[in-house]
Each structure stands twice: as C-alpha cells, then as structure tokens.
Amino acid sequence: MDPRVSELFEAAAGAHKSGSPNGRKTAKHGNKKCKNRSAKYPKASNNPPYLPPEAEEGNIEYKLKLVEPTQYRFEHLATQMKWRLQEGRGEAVYQIGVEDNGLLVGLTEEDMEASLQTLRRMAEKVGADITVLREQEVDHDSDESQRIAEVLIRKVPDDQQFLDLRVAVLGNVDSGKSTLLGVLTQGELDNGRGRARLNLFRHLHEIQSGRTSSISIEILGFDSRGEVVNYSESRTAEEICESASKMITFIDLAGHHKYLKTTIFGLTSYCPDFAMLVVSANTGIAGTTREHLGLAMALKVPIFIVVSKVDLCSRGAVERTVQQLERILKQPGCNKVPMLVSSTDDAVTAAQKCAQSPSITPIFTLSSVSGESLDLLKVFFNILPPLSNSEEQEELMQQLTEFQIDEIYTVPDVGTVVGGTLYSGVCREGEQLVVGPTDDGMFRELAVCSIQRNRSGCRVLRAGQAATLALGDFDRSLIRKGMVMVSPEMNPTICWRFEAEIVLLFHAKTFHKGFQVTVHVGNVRQTATVEALQGKDELRTGEKAVVWFRFIKHPEYLKVGTKLLFREGGTKGIGQVTKLQPRHPSGSNTA
Q1: Largest CA distance in the chain
Q2: Phi, psi at 20, each rounded to 5°
Q3: In a domain, 361, yes or no
Q4: Beta partners for 498?
Q5: Number of structural domains, the chain?
Q6: What InterPro entries does UniProt report for this protein, alphabetically (predicted)?
Q7: Three-class SS of residue 223?
Q8: What 3-state DSSP class applies to 96?
Q9: Distance separating alpha carbons of residues 176 and 252, to the nearest angstrom
C-alpha cells in the first residue's frame, strides 16, 4: 500500500483540531474558476470508435450479429452464454454490433432486431432474462444508420436464491447516509426532516439524536428485468428475497468520530464488496470524510461517492463540493480517476468500469427529498457486477467450513443466534461445528439448527455469504464477537503473539515498544501491546516496520496474510499478519 495515503489521516486529524471543513487552507484556490469539466471526467456518452479487445475470460461477450443462426450454431451460442453467466456469477453483458477486436461496426435496424430476438431465444434456453441497457448509433459514412446495443443477461445460479453484493455506507455524521438508505429501501422520498431513516435505527438514542451508533443491515432487491424490489407496497423481507434475482445488502456504518471503532469493525468484519462514501453538498468534505475514505482505500475496498442534499444548496455549491472531491481523489496517495455520473449512459459505464478498475471512482449528485438523480444510482446498483469470479468462489467452497461471528442474539423460542460471514466452505442445516477460541484457547462442539439469509430461510450457506445461524440451547455466555465456527477436521491456529508488517499512517509522536493499540483483523477486535520493533527503536508517521504484537485479554484465531488495521486515539496504521506464535507467553499450550 502507498504510505502516502497517510496524508488523508493527517488531514483528518488536522480537521478535528482546527474545525475546518477540509482541514486545509482554501483561500489560495477559492477564487479559481473551474476549467472545462468535460476534460476532467471520463464521459461514457462520448462514443469511442472501438472497445478493448474481447477477453477469453470474464462475463463480457462481443457479437457482430446473430441473424438466423443454424441449429448447430444456436446450440454453441447457448453453451457460450452459459459460460459467460458462470464467469459473472449469474450476470453477463453482450455487446451487439461489435467485432471481437472491439471495433464498433454497428447493425442496421432490421439486423439489430433479428440479433436481439436470437439473444432472447438463447436466454430462454438457458433460463435467463435479458435487459437492453442502451443503444447507440455509430458514425459511419453511409446513408443507412448503424446501431450497437449493450444487453444485460441475468440468471440466478441453480445453487443460489439470488445474486448478492455487500455495500458499506461511509461518510461524516449528518451527511444523509441513513436517510438515503431509507429512501432506497422503503421506496418513499424523505420529508426533509429525516423521516425516511427512522426504520433503520436500532436504538432509542439513535432516534432521539438522529445519529447512527451501531451497524444496521438493509436490503434492496432487483428482479430479473432490473426493476426495483423494496419494502414499498407493504412487502416483507421474505417477499423481497423471493421476488429479487439480485440483492444489494447495505451495511450502514456510524459517521461520528466517537463511533469510529464500530465503523472500522464493519469494514473489516463484514467483508464489503464496495464502499459508498456519502458527502453532504452543503458542508463538503468535513469531519470523518477523509478518514473514512482513507480506511476504505487502506483496506482496498473499491469506492464510489454520493454527493447528497443537492436540494439544499445552489448548483455552484454542488460544483465546489465535486471539485473538492476531485482534488482529493487525484492526490498522490489516492491516485483515483473521478467520473461524474449525469446520465443513464454514464451510470451503465460507471458500474462496469468501477468493477474492472479500482482507480475509477464514480461520483453521483442526488437528493433524498426531491429524488433528483436517484434513478441513476439505482441503475448503477442494478448493473454493478460481483468482484470475485466463479473460479475464486469455487476454490473457497472446496475448503473446510469457517464462519466468522460478528453478532450474537438471544431469540425467544429459538435460543442463541449468531450473525456473520461464511469465509470458506459450505454450511448446512444440522451440521456439527466447533466454536472458539475460549479464554483458555479451546473449542466447543455445537450444531447448526437453522440458517437465515436476509431474514429469509436458507438450507445451504456458501463461501462469501452473510447469514444468521440458530444454535438452539447453546450457552450464549460461551460465545463472543471475534470467535469462529469451524469444521472439526480443521486444526485452527490460536495465538497470543503475532508478527505483522505495518505502515504507520498517522501518529502525533513516536510509536515504540510498550505502546498499546486496538487491533482489527477480520472480525477480531482486541487491545494488543507492541512487544518489539525489528531493527528499530521507534516509528514515525509514514514509516514501515515489522512489529510483534501480543493480545492482552485472550487468544484469537488468526491466519497469515490477513489484513490488519490498528488504532489508538489519533494513531492509525495498517499492515499484514506475517507470522503467528501459537503459545501463551507463560509457555502453556493454548491450542
């Protein structure tokens, strides 16, 4: 990771002290006029003469024409569609009127209609649905107009109930995160006083203050034709899951600085596919915005930005906020390419490019009160593809079962229930697992009674999916957040001490032996002491080192190669676990 990302954390710390919206002096740039904005952003609407050459792997297929294929050719095309759907884990994009080398040739209206009809027959044969995303004319020196079409093919895999994407929602306090999620999931615009967010709050003090302090999960569905499926029309969560072929799971995180540990836990533990950074148009980049951006980048989570509350300020104020974001995204520590989304065409391209290149950062400007540009964000979510391919998914499913525990509940007539993410393997109802580590480093046997995904019953859980598992009468006091439920055949590594390669993102003084920090590794969150810095006596902001940490309360289950994030007050750093020492400092075996 580029250590210059620490600039975001330094600026954030300065903003907390000075109270400045962006933590820097802006008088120098305040009167500069905006130059030609179209030169700054990659615009999807500018029709290029060619696309990148077709890749053998992936879920994108180029077809010049599909006019009256023979039966043998049709069977081959249907098999090819199955392959592309498998590569995209249930989604594929067909470019019609494009040669394999990416040249935009285009088709006449008659040939285009015939090609789309063939595509519908192919989709029907494999049990999929098609949606024409967009059509464009190609400029050729001919009298007859030539068109190209981009078509989305969607089919829920046979072994799944729906496609699933997880999106973490970040942003400063009062930027409109919960209100935006309320509008998306409830299907009703806000009244300007936060009515839309009330259903998302989990505690009384959140309703009273209007500020999120815990992690809440919300769902937004899309059917096979790309239509929104949410809680409108009095739907229940079960009905949404039954009707939707694609599900966006939002992880609503806290914006206030005093709840930062909860926000970090949500980013490290819930394994989001993307992060949505919400910025208020009237306040700009204020408070924890820089910090949240830095955290997402440090954890390598792809980002897109939503500028909210555009109904409260002038177009000029919105422009200034977008320019402010652009400057930060182009800093050496970020190296992002901002892409302003202002049309459906832009939203389609942004969704595809955001998944293909982590440097592309789409920017939406919208209002939860007037509904301005909300449809563009929905189009973006509908087309946004999963990051992992089918091979990676299959490889994880072949491994032994490992379920990371993030939440613990007691439900009447059900018993103990745990929520979390299945990191690897497959988990079924009635499966026998072991849970731990306990304070003495042991694991206890238990059975999975039932499984629910997005509040809907589920018999089989696969790697990468989040769910809640009912454990019957298993004693809740024996479980804590940060534990794992694993297959009895696994020999889990339990450690008190571990080595990590770290980068100190921000620290006011010097980082040295004996310093205590809160360490986040996946779903593990515990205070650890710095036992040794290899080859150095102390560490300053931006420096790298190999450090030994020791947990102070109980041993944890860790794996070599896992990302690590640590904090203490203004101190923040990131790294990777490189070595584990599975014995207690006193010499007793904790495994």
Answers
A1: 85
A2: -70, 140
A3: yes
A4: 549, 580
A5: 4
A6: EF-Tu_GTPase, GTPBP1-like, P-loop_NTPase, T_Tr_GTP-bd_dom, Transl_B-barrel_sf, Transl_elong_EF1A/Init_IF2_C
A7: coil
A8: strand
A9: 11
Tell me the β-bridge partners of 130.
Answer: 153
Which of 562, 502, 554 lies closest to 526 in space, CA to CA?
A: 554
Question: Would you call the peptide bond into 437 cis, given omega within 30 degrees of 0 as the criterion?
Answer: yes
Beta-carbon contacts of 208 under 8 Å, excluding residues fewer than 6 positions away, are none
Domain containing 540: what range? 494-581
* C-alpha dist (Å) from residue 60 to 44, 102, 361, 562, 577: 17, 11, 21, 31, 36
DSSP type of residue 104: B
Distance, in Å, from the CA atom of 395 to the CA atom of 277, rounded to the nearest integer, reads 31
Would you state the pLDDT for residue 208?
A: 60
352 domain residue, yes or no: yes
Based on the domain organization, do 329 and 383 belong to the same domain?
yes
Is 18 within a domain?
no
- DSSP 8-state assignment for residue 196: G
DSSP count for the chain of H helices, then E strands: 13, 32
Confidence (pTM): 0.83
**Strand (E) or helix (H) holding 318:** helix 315-329
The sheet carrying 60-63 orders its strands as 60-63, 91-96, 146-154, 129-138
Domain boundary among 101, 124, 155: 155
Listed in sequence order, the DSSP H helices in 132-253 are 177-186, 204-209, 237-243
C-alpha separations of 373 from 44, 204, 307, 363 in Å? 16, 32, 11, 11
Same domain assignment for residues 143 and 169: no
Q: Residue 245 and residue 225: Cα distance in Å, rounded?
A: 9
Tokens of 237: 């969560």
Residues 353 and 385: their CA atoms lie apart, in Å, by 10
pLDDT at 560 over 60: yes
Same domain, yes or no, for 87 and 102? yes
CATH number at residue 520: 2.40.30.10
Give the DSSP H or E segment for 122: helix 109-126
Q: What CATH number is given to the structural domain containing 107? A: 3.30.110
- Mean local confidence (pLDDT), 376-388: 90
Domain boundary among 365, 387, 409: 387
- Separation between Cα atoms, residue 319 and residue 304, nearest integer Å: 17
The DSSP code sequence of 364-409 is EE--TTT-TTHHHHHHHHHHPPPSS-HHHHHHHHHSPPEEEEEEEE
In SS3 terms, 5-19 reads as: HHHHHHHHHHHHHHC
117 neighbors 125 (Cβ within 8 angstroms) = no
Please state, in angstroms and rounded to a whole number, the distance separating the CA atoms of residues 554 and 348. 48
8 Å CB contact between 182 and 163: no
| Residue 35 pLDDT > 50 | no
The C-alpha atoms of residue 575 and residue 503 are separated, in whole angstroms, by 6
Chain centroid, CA 589 distance in Å: 38
Q: Quote the CA–CA distance of 194 and 196 in Å, as a whole number.
A: 5
Rg (the chain; Cα; Å): 25
CA-to-CA distance for 304 and 339, rounded, in angstroms? 9
Amino acid at 46: N
112-156 pLDDT per residue, tens: 999 999 999 999 999 999 999 999 888 766 667 889 999 999 988
